[in-house]
Specification:
Largest sheet: none
Number of helices: 3
Strand content: under 5%
Helix content: over 70%
Low-confidence stretches: none
Distance between the termini: 97 Å
């Protein structure tokens, strides 16, 4: 309304009723939003509780040793277990293969070299025994 205009009582009553309807509509919407907010807060609280429980379980299982190793006081990294046995097996197998190659070359010569052939067979047998000893040692110490 412009300044200086007069408002009739009927118009004033109509504006009052319209404002009352708007206030009622806004109050109703406020109640709906409050209920939705409460529901969301409850869901968030439940999710937080579940997350805290899961985090606690993860932390507990990560720091608690398994029952099969609970009595063991030393930690054995799997990556470093048996390196010397693996090296001994590699040397034994490689030495035996090399000795067989030398034997094959010595036997193909004209005339065949008997002494080199016998020495290479002896080296191959010793390397094979070393490989077998390394296998047994690895089994004995690491299962």
């Amino acid at each position: 309304m412009a300044d200086g205009q007069k408002v009739t009582p009927q118009e004033l009553l109509a504006m009052y009723k319209k404002s009352q309807a708007t206030v009622a509509r806004l109050a109703s919407r406020n109640d709906e939003l409050t209920r939705e907010n409460s529901e969301l807060i409850d869901k968030l609280s439940q999710a937080e509780s579940s997350l805290n429980h899961t985090a606690f379980e993860l932390k507990r299982t990560a720091t608690t040793p398994s029952p099969t190793h609970a009595s063991s006081s030393r930690v054995v990294p799997i990556e470093q277990t048996g390196k010397k046995w693996k090296l001994a097996q590699l040397l034994g197998c490689g030495g035996a293969l090399l000795a067989f190659v030398v034997f094959a070359i010595a036997s193909s010569l004209e005339p065949p070299s008997v002494s080199v052939g016998l020495i290479s067979i002896l080296v191959a047998v010793l390397c094979a025994m070393g490989w077998l000893a390394a296998r047994v040692g690895a089994w004995w110490h690491h299962g």
